[in-house]
Design a protein that fits this description.
Layout lengths: L2 H23 L2 H34 L2
Helix pairs in contact: 1-2
Family: Belongs to the UPF0337 (CsbD) family.
Protein name: CsbD-like protein
Pfam family, one: CsbD
Length: 63
């Protein structure tokens, strides 16, 4: 599994937690920062999925 997938998942979880804490405490800055981190993590995770798919396709084409 591509490291971007695992790192992306970590950022998604951390961002979701920050966003939730920001909502509960009324801290808009923390909520926005959490949302940004969560979405950046999603993008990084998708990048990792694409890299994994490309690697799999490359393996299949060489067999």
């Amino acid at each position: 599994m591509d490291k971007n997938r695992t790192e992306g998942m970590k950022h998604e979880v951390k961002g979701a937690i920050k966003e939730g804490v920001g909502k509960v405490t009324g801290n808009t800055a923390k909520q926005v920062a959490g949302n940004i981190e969560k979405n950046a993590g999603k993008m990084q995770n998708e990048h990792g999925k694409l890299a994994d798919a490309a690697r799999q396709a490359d393996k299949r084409s060489h067999h």
